[in-house]
Amino acid sequence: MPRGTLRANTKKEKAVIVILAIFILFLFRGFGVCMLKHTIATNELNVVENQLSQYKNAITDLSEEVKSLQTERGVEQSIREKFHVAKPGEKTVIVVAPEEIKKEVENTSVWSKIKSFFIR
Known about the structure:
This protein is an all-alpha fold. Helix content is 74%, strand content 0%.
């Protein structure tokens, strides 16, 4: 075999390897972009599905409220709750939540103890 043919074959092989490597890099890049788009689409789908379930729950709640307002008792209950009214002769009771008890930090100095002894 002549020497020149061996070099030509290795140069061609190197060129083919470089071209294949570039092609493989483009394939991996394309795969990465597709995976990124898939992840984004999946996240958006989850968000939309959550919103859909919230809207379905809201529709159910509102339809129940509409059904209750179609009855005389439901209308009366709604008026009583919103406007705090009662029929003549009825008494209303309003329950007020107790205020939060504030705890003060006790002073531990001798002077504050003497002062608190005489103030009580």
